[in-house]
Amino acid sequence: MSAIAMAQSRAGLRVRVSQRLPMPLEGEFTCEPGELVALVGPSGAGKTSMLRALAGLMRPTSAVITVGDEIWCDTDRGIHLAPQDRHVGLVFQNYALMPHLSALDDVSLSLLHLPWRERTERARQWLAHVRISDEQQARKPSALSGGQQQRVAVARALAREPRLLLLDEPFSAVDQMSRQGLYELLAELRRDLQIPIVLVTHDLVEARHLADSVVVMDAGQVLQQGHPAQVYRSPRNARVADLMGVQNRFHGRWLGPRSGTDAAERMGWLEWLSVEGVTTGTSLRVKDKGRLAPGQMVSWVVQGDGLHLATEESREQPGNTSSFVAVQARVNEVRNLGETSLITAAIPGADGASFRLTRSGPQRRQLDAGQTILVQVDCDWVHVMPTRSA
Predict the structure, then answer these.
(1) pTM of this structure
(2) Do 38 and 61 have their domain in common?
(3) Residue 225 near residue 50 (C-beta atoms within 8 A)
């Protein structure tokens, strides 16, 4: 299989699309060889439409799509390669296997450009590579499990040595145990193939687990691209924060630097507001990126890593308290999630706003509904975003 892997192109994918009809699609992103990019967003966000544009199944109004030095689509120059000329491997959610063919014959069907003996041998190689045994290769799809059918579909997509692999919700139809095996298979294939891989998924956990980069989409528009951890910690706006499942999001007013020291250290002050815009009496000194005007209304988020617990009785403090602000809260709910617990704690004066914290170990056993706690907010983890109305 190493010879096949060496034959793969190391060309990266570059995409820029703009159209309003028949459905809106706007934005750009990249995917490097050996990299997996996950398109995430709600139903109707345009993820599958973007995939169709990459595969050549849809002709965008305005677009430039290149893989390495190959131009697959350039509307300004009248270039739009047909799907069969793009060398794309496409894996569907529902497998799309031929019900009357064996796994071996199904994969061989994608190799009709080769002599019979060669295409059979190539199909066997790819099926073995995705861990389909000789006995399973002779079975029809109805005699294979969901996970095995998806492995056959992956082998078929890769058999023609594509320059780009597209995965459209490929794991959503299989059980959790089979899904873990497919995750491991995909990780191995990425190391071997060194081609761009684009995955459409609605599962944020799956995207964080598999992707080198996420492309957040909503209403047909690309909102942000970046490493999953980076986008989660520093979403571009409140909508991205919602779509990435950021739970600790609050309202505020940007006050800006208060002193020469603040300005020199590129720090500014954030006034914490309730949902109704009433001050909570708490201000936070946070990083100033120079993009906000004093008085501007903002949203702000803090990742769970930036929240530390201390019971009111013990008043335990984190080691470096210079960037911490203590906020009193009342535990509303402690939900047991197995080895971890999800704690929801209401914030007095913030009109219904709550902290959501995930804890494990002995500390979680000390928390009960109705208990008063101190939440230490690490301002180094606070990320400030302008609101849409600002």
Answers:
(1) 0.84
(2) yes
(3) no
